[in-house]
Design a protein that fits this description.
Shape: elongated
Main location: membrane
Strand content: under 5%
Largest sheet: none
Structural class: mainly alpha
Radius of gyration: 16 Å
Number of domains: 1
Number of helices: 4
Subcellular location: Membrane
Pfam family, one: DUF423
GO cellular component, one term: plasma membrane
Membrane topology: Multi-pass membrane protein
Distance between the termini: 24 Å
Length: 125
């Protein structure tokens, strides 16, 4: 994935995350239990953080030129889909078995950040 594509993906994910946060605060507040609303908010928080992470990866990719950063961006996006996506669906449907998917997203986040660290370590000063 190119730096340009990662930047577009980051911007779109930030847009969706902000919308999800607003939807949770205004649209879901009366529909969900406090516990499920907290689950939704956790999904939004991790979505926002890792969408910003996609921007960071795009900027570092332009600077460092490491193919590992491109892969890290893909892995981070997969993490957003699995982690935040599973929490969004769990909140809206009450389907608790989706909670089993969430740790795979968290693992993808950890792997992506490790890939960023490795790419920076390998970069020429």
């Amino acid at each position: 994935m190119t730096d340009r594509q990662l930047t577009i993906l980051a911007a779109l994910n930030l847009m969706v995350a902000v919308g999800a946060g607003a939807f949770g605060a205004h649209g879901l507040k009366r529909m969900l239990t406090p516990e499920l609303l907290a689950v939704w908010q956790t999904g939004v928080m991790y979505h926002l953080i890792h969408a910003l992470g996609l921007f960071i990866i795009a900027l570092l990719g332009a600077r460092l030129g490491s193919p590992l950063l491109s892969a890290a961006g893909v892995v981070m996006f997969v993490g957003i889909v699995l982690f935040s996506g599973s929490l969004y669906v769990l909140s809206l449907t009450g389907t608790h078995w989706l909670g089993a998917v969430t740790p795979f997203g968290g693992t993808a986040f950890l792997a992506a950040w490790a890939m960023v660290a490795l790419a920076a370590y390998r970069a020429q000063p």
